Amino acid sequence: METKRGDECRTFAVAPGEKVDILELEELGRRYGIDIYLYFEDDLARNSTIEKDMETYKNTPEYERPFIPLGSFISFASSQDPGFLEKLKELPLILEVISCGEADIQGKSCRYITTLMPFLDEMEALPE
After folding, report:
1. What is the pLDDT of residue 128?
2. What does the pLDDT average to over 95-121?
3. Are 115 and 96 in contact (CB under 8 A)?
4. Can you list the positions of beta strands (E) in 1-128?
């Protein structure tokens, strides 16, 4: 069953409300086998669950959903810009942790973290 949004996820090293570098989250997921999802829509991220969203969007191609597995996002961005990972080291992309816990996703129990992509107006201006 999915963890409530206000619960701390101590074993995940992050908690809802924290702002974490995308590369740190990617490493955390890879190292500890945690599925990390990146949401693009604030309302959906805060008012839904990953279980519900995976069911709702099961017939929607991955790149057309309002959320994506973090690894898929990084792979796609890297395929479009081979210097993407280096750019993230120079100018970190900070994601907000929305929820974490355990969920049944597509018939499989897994640990997960959901995050929210910052809106453009929340991101620091790039130096000229």
Report:
1. 40
2. 88
3. yes
4. 19-21, 35-39, 67-69, 94-105, 108-116
